[in-house]
Amino acid sequence: MAEDFSRRSFIKGASLGVAAGYFAAAGLSSTALYKQVMPAEKLNQTDIGEVKALRMKVISETSWYDNNVLLNDLKGAGGLLVNQYTIPWTSNGVAAGYNGNNAGGFATYIEADLMDGSTKRILLDTGWNPAWMEKRFIEEGVAEKLAKKQIDYWIISHEHFDHYWGLEATLKYNPNQDVYVPKGFYTEGFDLLKGKAFPKAQVKNDFPHKGKVHVMDSSKVNPLFPGAALMTFDMPIICRVFGEQAFVFNVKDKGIVLVTGCCHMGIITYMETVRKKIKGGEKIYAVQGGLHISPFEDWDPQYDDLILALNKYGIQKIGANHCTGFIAVEKMISAKLPVVTGTKRNMTKRDIYLGNGDTLAV
């Protein structure tokens, strides 16, 4: 169904031309090296149409509860390039976790109002811990919409544990829901979807998927409906994951709205690619989701260059959360970037950015 990338191919890809440690964190975001890594390209823009309005509700941005626990799990398993399906992730005894489990999950519910008056409903990602994700799906009405077959698109941004492994919380309510995944999914990812369990990693799926699986082409813009498209970025990510896809919406009278899961490709790469490939891409009105700048609350002075660069794009709303990191958001606020704050509900740690249950409307 998709190319099964070997560990050797992954490591080779991860090491080509870049410093693996820096780019694993920055995701090719640094403007200092951007022109060297991403040479100038001619514009070849696609007209994706327009939507009337957009609402993005954060179901869960709490992918895990304790950074140290997660980092120790990775270190104990052998490092960042170890296959995520072979790591014995901590699932009990975590004081800050949900019922002691360090696993949480990321998911966003999106409503797009079309020009014809209809509304498209989208579920981006499905989290990690099925118990936590089901709780959040019920609380925010997503479970009911799944059961009533009211979700038009189920999109998986990438194969990482915290975005994909909670799929039981989705499939329990609608095993026939079609799913859109990026090019680069491994055999394990498709096997999990079909119902295979991975006991060592403590991940299973008791609700085998019966719908269609759409593997998105990374060589082109992939329209979903008028005013919305997916773009897939090919790159190696930690835990032997490959490729990530993200949304591009064009909102009438506002401009481009970008919605991302983790943004491993880097926010600058994301915006520059949209500028080159999407009609109207030079006017980015809002960005929502994880921006993968300081997910473990570390900071490298090179990231300051990224914060300064963001100010040059004229973004009107930044709904950052998840793997953006609190330090990064503090830096954004200090730089007077238009960060949208949250309400610190549903186990969200701070109100400095959009948290669980908060909505960004455009």
What does this entry look like structurally?
The chain is globular, with a radius of gyration of 19 Å. A hairpin with a 3-residue loop joins β9 (241-251) and β10. It is an alpha/beta fold. The chain has helices at 7-15, 20-26, 31-37, 67-77, 130-139, 142-147, 161-164, 168-171, 187-194, 267-277, 302-310, 326-334, and strands at 51-60, 107-114, 119-124, 153-155, 179-182, 213-216, 222-225, 228-237, 241-251, 255-260, 284-290, 317-321, 359-361.
Task: Pick out its properties.
362 residues, alpha/beta, Metallo-beta-lactamase, Chain A, seven-stranded mixed β-sheet, 13 strands, 26% helix, disordered N terminus
What is the arithmetic mean of pLDDT?
Answer: 91
CATH architectural arrangement:
4-Layer Sandwich
Q: Report the order of strands and helices.
A: HHHEHEEHHEHHEHEEEEEHEHEHE
Shape assignment: globular
Largest sheet: 7 strands, mixed
* Helical content band: 25-40%
The CATH class is Alpha Beta
What would you give as the CATH superfamily? Ribonuclease Z/Hydroxyacylglutathione hydrolase-like
Number of strands: 13
Structural class: alpha/beta
Query: What would the CATH topology be?
Result: Metallo-beta-lactamase, Chain A
**Overall tally of domains:** 1
> What is the CA-based Rg, rounded?
19 Å
Number of helices: 12
What is the distance, rounded to the nearest whole angstrom, between the alpha carbons of the first and last residues?
Answer: 36 Å
Neighbour order of strands in the largest sheet: 6-5-4-3-2-1-13
Uncertain parts = 1-32
Beta fraction: 15-25%
